[in-house]
Amino acid sequence: MALNDVAIRALKPQIRSYMVADEKGLCIEVAVSGSKLWRFATAPTQPPAAPRHKPPPISFVRLASAGTQLKSLQLAVLLTVSKPAK
User: Fold this and answer.
1) Cα–Cα distances in Å, from 72 out to 13, 64, 69, 78, 80?
2) What is the pTM of this model?
3) What is the DSSP letter of 67?
4) pLDDT tens readout for residues 22-56
5) Which of 30, 37, 44, 70 is the most exposed place for a label (fewest CB within 10 A)?
6) Would you say 6 and 27 are in contact if contact means Cβ atoms under 8 Å apart?
C-alpha cells in the first residue's frame, strides 16, 4: 500500500497502537492517542557472519598455573609494599 496523504489522514486510533507499511519499508505507527510516528523498517539481508576462527581452548592446567603465578605476583607486590622505607 502506498502511504499517500489521503491514506495517512484516514488512519484512526484504535484500542492498541498499530503500524501500516508501504512496499519499501517505510512505516507509520498510529498510537492509541492518535499521534502518528514515522518508522523505517530494516531487516537484515544476510545472517550474521560466523567467526572466522575459534579461540584456542584453555585447559584447566593452564588456568591453574596462571592462578598460582598471579598469587605469587600478588605476594611479591605485598612484600615490597609492606617493607618499611629506610
Assistant:
1) 69, 12, 5, 10, 12
2) 0.46
3) H
4) 887 788 899 999 999 888 766 656 666 666 666 66
5) 44
6) no
